[in-house]
Amino acid sequence: MATNFDLASCSRAELVALVQDLQQRLVKREQQIEQLKEQLEKQSALCHLSQPTREEPLPGSQEDLLAQLEKIYPEER
After folding, report:
1. pTM score
2. What residues contact residue 15 under an 8 Å CB cut-off, 6+ apart?
3. What tens digit of pLDDT does each residue of 40-75 get?
4. Which of 9, 33, 67, 74 is deepest in the core (most CB within 10 A)?
5. In 1-77, which ranges are continuous DSSP H helix?
6. Torsion angle of C-alpha atoms 60, 61, 67, 71, degrees rounded to 10
7. CA 8/CA 13 separation, integer angstroms
8. Could you tell me the sign of the dihedral formed by the alpha carbons of 40, 44, 49, 52, in that order?
């Protein structure tokens, strides 16, 4: 609502209509915020569930490469 007008020159009915419009916009905005929060919580929960809890190193990591080398060339003990 980027219009600039003199509120003092508005009639009572116009001011009431303006306040009602702003209240409706606020309710819609709050509903949108709640929906976005719920989506974020769901995504966060899904990400948490999809993250593996591995004991094995991640493929390509330094630990993985060292484990592969150990399998190929075991140390003589």
Report:
1. 0.52
2. 7
3. 888 887 776 666 566 777 888 888 888 888 888 877
4. 67
5. 12-50, 62-72
6. 10
7. 12
8. positive
Q: Which tokens go with 44?
A: 């966060």
Contact 57, 67 (CB under 8 A): yes
Query: What is the number of residues in the chain?
Result: 77
The torsion angle over the Cα atoms of residues 37, 40, 41 and 44, rounded to 10 degrees, is -160
In angstroms, the CA 56 to CA 67 distance is 9
For 18-28, how does the pLDDT look when each residue is reduced to its tens digit (9 = 90+)?
Answer: 999 999 999 99
Residue 66 contacts residue 74 (beta carbons within 8 Å): no
